Amino acid sequence: MAEGLSSGAAATLRALLSGADPVSRALLAQVPHARVVGRCGCGCVTVDLEVDRTAAEPAPVHGNPVVEAAYTHPYSAGLIVFTEDGYLSLLEIYSVSDEPISAWPDPRFIER
After folding, report:
1. Residue ranges of E strands in the chain
2. Nearest of 39, 36, 34, 31 to residue 14 by alpha carbon
3. In the prediction, which pLDDT does 2 show?
4. Single pTM value for the model
5. CA 42, CA 60: separation in Å to the nearest integer?
């Protein structure tokens, strides 16, 4: 069962995909059409994504992961965005501590 992106996941994706390059622009345009189709089993907020391919174009050819970034406040954590066939497929957050991150931190604290 698919569900809409949380406001925190959407804000995180918008911050991570804010570049002016063609890949970032195409993926950013997919965010309103992305749905959550799965979650990580550890309790963190990582989400598997599916994009309505009738509503958004694929991104130009690119490598994976598309984006890697980090938080140092309020957590020490990493962020990764993956795609499949040019469409958003995974927004992952991982903690460098033992505790899973259960809410999306403020995207203002993302460091690239």
Report:
1. 3-4, 34-39, 47-51, 67-71, 77-84, 87-95, 110-111
2. 31
3. 87
4. 0.94
5. 32
